[in-house]
Amino acid sequence: RHNLGVANTVIFKRATLFGVDPATLEMVDANSDYGPLKIPKVLVELQKALLAVRGLDVEGIFSVKGNDRRMHEIEEQLTAETFPEKEDYSTYDPHDVASTIKAWFGRLPTPVLSKLDDDDLAMCAIDEEECIEVPGLLPEPEHSIFIWLLELLFEVCKNSKVNEMESHAIGRAWAPFLLDRPQDNVRRALLEQQAK
After folding, report:
1. DSSP state, residue 23
2. CA Rg, the chain, in Å?
3. Own/partner pairs for 157-166, CB < 8 Å, 24+ apart?
4. Residues near 178 by Cβ (< 8 Å), separated by ≥ 6?
């Protein structure tokens, strides 16, 4: 038996911030018109980057796909806690940052809106007033994450004269990342409705 006088320490590093249950991620406080929210830090960092590169002013933001290589680099930097590189956001393309946000949502093990009843979602396609109730039906952390996303997308929509992202374009860009499986009838109905 050898005693080296050194404590055996195992350091666990998170393999990724993407594709995991959001409840397992580090949460930070985010200000909201709806009150305080607890949001995964990764989303707050990406939002900060999107605003810093004036992403809300970019035509087709959240609609135009980013560069896969750059998106992968952003994901790696976020996981390694080196984002933004050299504390400089100017090296990031707005579409790469926006697409990384969508990728985070798209790779969730359970899409944010999948915790809702199909009937509740279907009512949104029929009556927009019903949609006001949807966030309140979600459990945490999905509730806070969805409110955070709605507020971000509202800011995008407010700037639609510049970025050409009106509500229908935002819905078309985001529905596949928020709803359940492609074979889900509600998802198909919403996508068909947006295609009209």
Report:
1. G
2. 19
3. 159/56, 159/57, 162/56, 162/57, 162/59, 163/56, 163/57, 163/58, 163/59, 163/60, 163/61, 164/59, 164/60, 165/60, 165/61, 165/62, 165/63
4. 105, 111, 112, 113, 146
User: Rounded to an integer, what distance in angstroms lies between the CA atom of residue 63 and that of residue 168?
Assistant: 11
Residues in the chain: 196
Query: pLDDT tens for residues 43-89?
Result: 999 999 999 999 999 999 999 999 999 999 999 999 999 999 878 99
DSSP-based three-state secondary structure for 191: helix
- Angstrom distances, CA of residue 161 to CA of 119, 166, 167, 177: 34, 8, 12, 25
CB 54 within 8 A of CB 94: yes
Distance from C-alpha of 148 to C-alpha of 38, rounded to nearest angstrom: 9
pTM value? 0.83
Helix (H, G, I), strand (E, B) or coil at 181: coil
> What letters, b where the CB count within 10 A reaches 16 and e where it falls short, cover 164-186?
ebeeebbbbbbbebbbbeeebeb
pLDDT at 139: 94
Predicted confidence at residue 182, as pLDDT, reads 52
